[in-house]
Design brief:
five-stranded parallel beta sheet; 5 strands
């Protein structure tokens, strides 16, 4: 059993980190945090706009600072962006503050899942296949370096993948004591607040 304050998902775009991650967070009674969404909340700008205005280097600096803040907490399932592993400090921090799962998807699976997605700055060009193949080649060793566990999401539907990965994670990781109780208390407080307003 690997004790860690958080569960962290790494992997390429289209691997299901957000969709499967939300289901896993509910299963383990922890808070779901999407790093890219958190960056957008903090900056008030879309990821594509940050890339356009500050370049990839500017975005990666914001990503690094946001990840550092998030990982200081516990009882979270953290879905990272596909390039978060590029920074050696990020990889070390994720391993130190989380049980890290590499959610793998091959290029064909990525293309199918991202067919209608026009929000990814790195896929703004014409040849998506070439871009995804290049990114896979560059980043595969980095995902392996960061992760404690690898799971191939490609053959599975979202619910099935979440169920199978949930079983695997249960063998290796448990949420911090109080996470489930805290999430239940928070939910009860939200209900009470809704009724009071």
């Amino acid at each position: 059993m690997h004790p860690a304050p958080n569960l962290v998902l790494v992997g390429p775009m289209g691997a299901g980190k957000s969709s499967i991650g939300r289901r896993l967070a509910a299963r383990f009674g922890v808070v779901f945090v999407d790093v890219d969404h958190e960056i957008e909340l903090r900056t008030g700008a879309r990821i594509a706009t940050i890339f356009e205005c500050e370049g990839e280097a500017g975005f990666r600096a914001r990503e690094r600072a946001t990840l550092l803040d998030i990982l200081a907490g516990e009882g979270q399932l953290i879905a990272t962006g596909g390039g978060a592993v590029l920074d050696p400090g990020n990889r070390a921090l994720m391993r130190a503050r989380g049980f890290v799962v590499h959610m793998h998807a091959d290029v064909d699976a990525q293309l199918a899942r991202l067919a209608r997605d026009r929000t990814r700055p790195l896929l703004a060009g014409d040849d998506r296949t070439e871009v995804l193949q290049r990114l896979a080649l560059e980043r595969a060793p980095l995902y392996a370096d960061a992760a404690h566990l690898r799971f191939d999401t490609g053959p599975h539907a979202c619910n099935e993948a979440a169920a199978q990965l949930g079983h695997l994670v249960e063998v290796h990781w448990r949420p911090p004591a109080g996470s489930i109780e805290t999430s239940i208390s928070d939910a009860a407080a939200d209900v009470a607040s809704t009724h009071a307003s």
